[in-house]
Design goal:
Elements lengths: L2 E6 L4 H13 L2 E4 L11 E9 L2 E2 L1 H9 L5 E6 L6 H9 L6 E6 L1 E5 L5 H14 L10 E5 L1 H12 L1
Length: about 160
């Protein structure tokens, strides 16, 4: 299968999962800022990091402007269960052209976060109970392997 993976990553989690998918499919990987011949691919997977409920503007415009017939969206962030709502909030009608919208969790890299990011994660953690206790010196991998496998399967078909 000829797959292109387009990604946006702030701290590296979305790039990490994009490269994992690429290894599974022997796919091409391009950041959202790089150019690619979309029509040369059978499928396109957009991997977008979500920060404070927001999607990258360039990724949103890319999806909205695309006419590719087989595109899926993988959202990387803590609220993996809200992936469709997040996509709907940013993409509106463009969600209808996506064959899959799925959240896969992500990585909390506290040493690389700023003060405000750490505070926001602490507030989210109180509500969602993601971690029993936060150690700001640690990196937490919170991937949803079931959802990741769904995307791997999508790319193989």
């Amino acid at each position: 299968m000829n797959v292109l993976i387009r990604y946006y990553s702030k701290h590296g989690s979305a790039k990490q999962i994009a490269e994992r998918f690429a290894d599974q499919w022997h796919a091409d990987v391009k950041s959202i800022d790089e150019t690619a011949q979309d029509d040369a691919y059978e499928k396109i997977l957009c991997v977008c990091a979500v920060y404070m409920g927001g999607m990258n503007k360039a990724m949103v415009q890319y999806i909205k402007n695309s006419s590719h017939p087989n595109m899926a969206l993988c959202l990387v962030g803590l609220n993996k269960d809200d992936a469709y709502k997040t996509a709907q909030d940013h993409l509106n009608e463009a969600t209808k052209k996506l064959s899959m919208i799925i959240g896969v969790g992500g990585v909390l890299n506290f040493p690389e976060m700023g003060f405000f990011e750490q505070k926001i994660i602490a507030m989210v953690n109180k509500e969602k109970k993601l971690l029993e206790k936060i150690d700001k010196k640690k990196v937490y991998e919170l991937w949803d392997e079931t959802n990741i496998q769904q995307i791997i399967d999508w790319g193989k078909v």
